[in-house]
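Q: what sequence does this backbone want?
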């Protein structure tokens, strides 16, 4: 579970509620027509901009923001080094047990092709294709939330304009100008909150998730190709350690 996402949302909502309560009641900031135009308009624009399948998949994408588990790069490298050592000593067939124990389907498929004697070029092509597809699927969720982050403020302004038109149409009643102006501004408030507390930050978090997963897939890709080519495990570890940053020092044998 990603506590940072949960903490951030709760802190944001809490700060807004406390600020409102210090100056007025929450009821002043609740307006059903404003909610309808901002939420409904944002959702409608998203349906227009994206295929139905991607929009309906927003629930699955959103779950990745809160429930997300990814293997540490150093653990992946350590596992690949262990497999490489085993393959170097006992041959490629000796790593069949590692295929069954692999929790990552991408790694399992790559190792299976290696054991089956598939040519290095073919393994590389298949793995790169799978990586490109995974990146596309991960990126689509981030792009969708980024678009919603631009739609929400726009429909907030639409709601404000509707409110202003309705207010100007009733200037003969001065006592209603204040309340109508307040309602007109609430839609802008809703749009800003949705965009800047939810949609845009969620898009950014999904981009980070995408980068992490693709980085891990790159480690597996390069590691399996090294194993297939029979490279020395130490050389492979040195090559893969670049994914751990400049402060990492490969282990000594």
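A:
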């Amino acid at each position: 579970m990603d506590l940072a996402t949960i903490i951030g949302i709760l802190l944001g909502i809490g700060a807004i509620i406390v600020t409102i309560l210090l100056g007025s009641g929450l009821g002043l900031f609740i307006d059903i027509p404003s909610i309808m135009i901002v939420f409904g308009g944002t959702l409608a624009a998203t349906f227009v901009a994206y295929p139905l399948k991607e929009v309906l998949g927003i629930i699955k994408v959103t779950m990745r923001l809160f429930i997300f588990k990814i293997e540490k790069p150093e653990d992946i490298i350590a596992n690949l080094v262990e497999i490489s050592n085993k393959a170097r000593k006992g041959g490629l067939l000796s790593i069949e047990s590692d295929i069954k124990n692999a929790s990552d389907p991408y790694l399992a498929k790559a190792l299976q092709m290696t054991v089956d004697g598939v040519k290095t070029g073919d393994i590389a092509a298949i793995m790169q294709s799978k990586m490109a597809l995974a990146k596309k699927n991960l990126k689509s969720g981030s792009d969708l939330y980024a678009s919603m982050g631009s739609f929400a403020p726009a429909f907030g302004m639409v709601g404000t304009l509707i409110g202003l038109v309705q207010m100007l149409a009733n200037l003969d009643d001065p006592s209603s100008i204040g309340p109508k102006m307040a309602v007109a501004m609430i839609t802008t408030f809703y749009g800003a909150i949705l965009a800047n507390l939810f949609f845009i930050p969620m898009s950014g978090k999904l981009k980070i998730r995408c980068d992490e997963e693709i980085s891990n897939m790159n480690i597996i890709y390069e590691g399996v190709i090294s194993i297939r080519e029979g490279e020395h495990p130490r050389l492979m570890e040195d090559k893969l350690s670049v994914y751990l940053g400049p402060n990492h020092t490969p282990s000594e044998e």
